[in-house]
Write a structure and sequence with these properties.
By secondary structure, this protein is of the alpha+beta class. The protein contains 18 helices and 14 strands.
Length: 443
């Protein structure tokens, strides 16, 4: 069964403008076996898995938001997304007077992620949605694209069949433009870059877009995709220049020396599963069987001098840490963390990122606060590499008191937050997800 399904059998209702009236449907959005459109009709007091809405505004929203939906990740957890981000990622932005379910779409760079919550307790609206998702659901980007393409094309065909020429021409023209852009590599690159920077199509200032594309030629498209959302529109007009200055900073000279590892885990597995398997395999190759990975071993793996790591003064204004390749396996590390434990964790993330790019020291590395697939891999790798869950369990000995958790953080030289996260991720400690179930609080 496909994880993402959008059903829309046509029906008739109301006496609205032609494009809305002629595209009335019984919409059902399913994620796996959960119907996110299951609702209670407040007036008739009936429950249905589908909701009567017009498909036109939703199709138009998907077409207008296409590049941001498939290219732009969730902003860092420390920041509430700006209104422009929410308008491009929250299904409710389709509006047109309909009550839409609270569903949020955001890519992690490889797949599509979906969050959803049921309607709030208010009975002022005509429809109350009953279902949400306990945790974000991830599915293949291709599944998302195919389903949305089919939906948009079906709405265009419906408008054509019912003679709503003006609306058909508007949606058809918009979607044809998106299809043409996807087919042209240079245009597709520019659109992806705009979206990663936080702009709608043609909204990004030319000088910003050109600066980003020049950086892409230097650092590679993959690295730019990790850094552009951090140094994009939300950071201010000169933010992309800050990224340019970051890559020119003097860093810590290194020559990474990682053993080749061959994890047996399926490459289609979740990023944290791959990361944990790789961390365990690397520990095995390094003969690191004890609890503690000391900083000297991290320095040895990265080929840097311990005193340089200890005394490097990072710029607190940097929003990312990077590793700059110089050829012949030589690199420069530009960390952003100042606290010794945070810097240890960042170094472990760099080790993980090297494994993520198959130990390719000619590739630019980037460590950020985003929740892309690559950043999720880094964080999970660093946590398991520095503090294997089995070693942590052995140290705690079923004592999860605050004092013992702090002792564990001291023992493994990581932050208490990392200890708590590791335990929660392994279902050993309750995680408070918050009341909304979404990655940020709605208004």
């Amino acid at each position: 069964m496909r994880k993402f399904q959008l059903h829309h059998p046509w029906t008739h209702a109301g006496d609205d403008v032609p494009e809305l009236r002629q595209t009335i449907c019984r919409l059902e959005l399913k994620i796996g076996d959960v119907s996110l459109t299951q609702n209670e009709d407040i007036f008739s007091q009936t429950i249905s898995n589908s909701v009567v809405v017009s498909a036109y505004p939703l199709a138009y929203w998907f077409a207008a938001s296409w590049w941001r939906l498939v290219s732009e990740p969730l902003p860092p957890r420390s920041a509430r997304p700006p209104t422009s981000w929410r308008m491009a990622h929250e299904m409710g932005a389709a509006n047109s007077g309909y009550v839409w379910p609270q569903v949020l779409f955001a890519t992690d760079g490889e797949s599509m992620q979906v969050w959803a919550v049921p309607s709030r307790g208010s009975r002022d609206q005509s429809v109350r949605y009953l279902n949400g998702l306990a945790a974000p659901v991830t599915f293949a980007m291709q599944d998302f694209e195919v389903e949305i393409e089919g939906f948009i094309n079906a709405v265009i065909a419906r408008l054509d069949a019912t003679g709503v020429a003006e609306a058909e021409a508007s949606l058809k023209s918009l979607w044809a433009e998106v299809v043409a852009e996807r087919a042209d590599p240079d245009t597709a690159l520019a659109r992806r870059c705009e979206a990663e920077l936080g702009y709608d199509p043609d909204e990004c200032p030319e000088e910003v877009l050109f600066a980003a594309i020049r950086l892409k030629d230097r650092i590679g498209e993959a690295a730019l995709s990790e850094l552009a959302p951090v140094y994009g529109k939300a950071g201010g007009a000169d933010s992309i220049s800050d990224l340019g200055r970051l890559i020119e900073c003097k860093g810590i000279s290194g020559r990474p020396d990682l053993p080749r590892i061959s994890s047996r885990i399926n490459k289609g597995a979740a990023p944290w599963e791959r990361a944990v398997a790789d961390a365990r395999q690397l520990r095995k190759e390094l003969h690191a069987s004890g609890d503690h990975i000391d900083t000297d071993m991290l320095c040895e793996v990265l080929g840097v001098r311990r005193e340089e790591i200890d005394h490097y003064a990072s710029d607190s204004r940097h929003r990312a840490g990077i590793v700059v390749p110089h050829g012949n396996r030589h690199v420069s590390l530009i960390p952003r963390k100042r606290h010794p434990r945070s810097r240890r964790f960042e170094m472990a993330r760099f080790v993980g990122d090297l494994l993520y790019v198959n130990s390719n020291t000619d590739t630019w590395l980037a460590s950020t606060d985003l929740s892309t697939n690559r950043q999720k891999y880094q964080r999970a790798f660093a946590a398991e590499f520095l503090c294997p869950i089995e070693k942590l369990q052995g140290f705690l000995d079923d004592d999860f008191s605050d004092d013992n958790l702090e002792d564990a953080a001291d023992h493994f030289e990581i932050s208490p937050a990392t200890v708590t996260s590791l335990l929660a991720n392994n279902n050993l400690l309750y995680r408070e997800f918050g009341a909304s179930g979404l990655p940020y609080v709605l208004s």
